[in-house]
Amino acid sequence: MIDLKNIKKTYTMGGEEVRALAGVNLRIEPGEFVAIMGPSGSGKSTLMHILGLLDVPDSGTYHLMGREVSKLTDDELAILRRKAIGFVFQQFNLLARTSAAENVGLPQLYSQRRVDLEKSAMLLEKVGLGGRTQHKPNELSGGQQQRVAIARALINDPRIILADEPTGNLDSKSGDEIMGILKGLNAQGITVILVTHEEAIARNAKRIIRVKDGLIQSDETLEATKEQPIPELFPEESRHGFRESIAEWLTHFNEGLTALLANKVRSALSMLGILIGVAAVIAMLALGRGAQKAIEVQLATLGSNLLTLRPGAFRVSGVSKDAGAVTRLTMDDAKAIASTFGDEIKQIAPVLNGKGQVTYQDKNWSTSLTATTPEYAPMRAYVPAIGRFFDDDEDKKRVRVAVIGMTVLNQLFGETDPIGEYIKINKVPFQVIGILPEKGSNGWRDNDDIIMIPLQTGMKRLLGKVYVDEIDMEMVDATQAAKMETELNEFMIRTHRVPPSQQEPFQIRNMADVQSALAESSQTMGFLLASIAAISLLVGGIGIMNIMLVSVTERTREIGLRKAVGATGKDILSQFLIEAMVISLSGGLIGILLGCTLTFAMSSLAHWATSISLDAILLSTIFSALIGIVFGVWPALKASRLNPITALRYE
Fold first, then answer.
1. What is the model's pLDDT at position 228?
2. d(Cα 636, Cα 246) in Å, to the nearest integer?
3. Which end of the chain is more exposed for a tag (fewer CB within 10 A), N or C?
């Protein structure tokens, strides 16, 4: 069953080589009860580790049930361990925050991807702990904990039981009970290999092998073992199907979640960085998106697809001079433009601006005046919220009617309805026929502090001007703006016969360019806020990595135990990655709630424009999960690469 030939093993300790095994030859038949004895440093523990596939020899051959195992990889050895071998450790090696039944079923997580609690309870009953299935290790005596360890060793129906000083930490009565259980298992046909330094304990075996200086010194048979056939290994495992993959993932998820819940404070500290980072992402993106929407509202008040024509400075060779009537704009210019570019221009409105002192009863206010045509209202989003705008007939007849902004309304009328009332602008009476929609302030100008009147009324009856300050045009196709600018400029130069020496006689302002610039600024600010929040997430990820590294160090013995009972490097890697991802996702979900709360608070208390988007929530969730995976890789790899012997001996 076990056949070792010329097994050698050397360790390097403190720069010096220590030969643990110097050429061991050993054969153990099925059903034997073997005790391996020797003083400290004799090599008996190393021999036990090689027999239990926890370590590999430097040279020699090891055949287990007819299969050469000395050259197998770590994962192949792990799979073989869970098929054929059960371990009973001197230190018990039970998971502290797990019940006895779950401790017993631990090897099944890696052999069957589930725990059969009924079988665990049956085995605990078999070793005399039927009423203790839900007790945790700290609620059990040393002898009871060792019984749990024996039941765990039996859960996968092993061919061999390896017991390393199983009575070393027990009183004599508990030690006798444990030896009685091991003798009973051997009587059932299970091969038992016991490592001990106590002669009395060794005498319970049927064969005693004494080791010294890495060599077998004697091999004494106390009782003949009935010959048994060599058992066959289980067939090779195949876990490549979808169902098996799901079962494996769920197993690792359950183990990871159990480990996190067992250390709630550490888990909470781990997710704190991600929580803050995700909350910052949600709040900052909401703030940036709200600002962008506010800018969009402002842009909408300026109008869309607009070109604004204004007279330029009269510059000759770089020297500014009085432009005079050369580049002044008139009503005839507006008509000529409408006639020439009728296919490209949807609407056109000449505009004359000025200042005026307006009075109503005993109240007066200084405000801006805009004299224009009816087309101006829909072009500039100035269609009155209450009342109406003046029409073409009123413009032609120079009727003294006015449409006032909200600021003028508040200053002159307060809560009084102004429609139909008369005000005086520069001592000229005008009837209020409408109230302009509220547009707010853009930082340097109150857009609601304005009065609009018909163009002809303003030119002839109020401002006394024969020219206009600008001509606004709404284009049919905004994509043709650049072309239109060039053609319009050339047309105006020809019409006004501007000499070639004059530079920039006209200014043409494209509102699309202004909107694009503002939108780009808003987008840049959004990216800046998102970058700040992303840095918070990055810091949170580093925090997860640090905590996970600490977790690996704290749980080194647990990792060694899991590997000893059959966990492969992939199993350990998956479990720790899932733990990191669960921490990140949990922190991310709580962070989303916190971020939404902060956003609501900013909107309600500070009256900031905010807007939470589904994109921001999805981005935060995905990013937090990715951070858990990325920053959990290093700790997970470190855990998966731990040597089971080194891990079990930790501290």
1. 74
2. 20
3. C
1 burial via Cβ count (<10 Å: 0-12, 13-18, 19+): buried
Per-residue pLDDT tens for 281-313? 778 777 777 776 766 666 655 656 788 899 876
CA distance 142 to 27: 33
Residue 455 near residue 395, CB atoms below 8 Å: yes
DSSP track, 279-338: HHHHHHHHHHHHHHHHHHHHHHHH-SSEEEEEE--EEETTEEE--TTSS-B-HHHHHHHH
- DSSP tag of 21: E
Residue 556 contacts by C-beta under 8 Å, 6 or more apart in sequence? Answer: 642, 647, 650, 651
* Torsions phi, psi for 356 (to 5 deg): -150, 150
Task: Report the C-alpha gap between 369 and 372 in whole angstroms.
Answer: 10
CA-based nearest residue to 370, from 518, 247, 472, 260: 472
Phi, psi (rounded to 5 degrees) for 404: -110, 155
Give residues with Cβ within 8 angstroms of 14, minimum separation 6. none
Give the whole-angstrom CA distance, residue 453 versus residue 607: 35
Helix, strand, coil % in the chain, rounded to nearest 5 = 45, 20, 30
Which residues does residue 310 pair with via DSSP β-bridges, in sequence order?
A: 507
Contact between 424 and 412 (Cβ < 8 Å): no
Written as one string, the DSSP assignment of 223-268 is SPPPP-PPPPPPPPP---SHHHHHHHHHHHHHHHHHHHHHTHHHHH
* Cβ count near 317 (within 10 Å): 7
Q: How far apart are the C-alpha atoms of 432 and 634, rounded to whole Å?
A: 74
Question: What CA–CA distances, in Å, run from 402 to 24, 29, 351, 421?
Answer: 111, 112, 15, 10
Is the pLDDT reported for residue 360 higher than 90? yes
Which residue, chain included where needed, has tokens 């290994």? 233
Q: Angle CA(382)–CA(388)–CA(393) in degrees, nearest 5?
A: 100
Six-digit token string for 131: 């009423």
Q: How far is CA 254 from CA 101, 124, 247, 259, in A?
A: 16, 23, 11, 9
DSSP label at 438? P
pLDDT range class, residue 357, cuts 50, 70, 90 = very high
CB atoms within 10 A of CB 595: 28
Q: Compute the distance between CA of residue 165 and CA of residue 198 in angstroms, rounded to an integer.
A: 9
For tokens 């500290």, name the residue. 269
CA nearest neighbour of 508 among 533, 535, 481: 481
Q: Is 464 helix (H, G, I), strand (E, B) or coil?
A: coil
Tokens of residue 305, six digits? 């697809």
CB neighbourhood size of 332 (10 A)? 10
Sequence-distant (≥ 6) Cβ neighbours of residue 475 within 8 angstroms: 305, 306, 307, 344, 345, 346, 481, 484
**Distance separating alpha carbons of residues 350 and 336, to the nearest angstrom:** 12
Closest CA to 544 of 594, 571, 581, 590: 581
pLDDT at 447 over 80: yes
Number of Cβ within a 10 Å radius of residue 54: 23
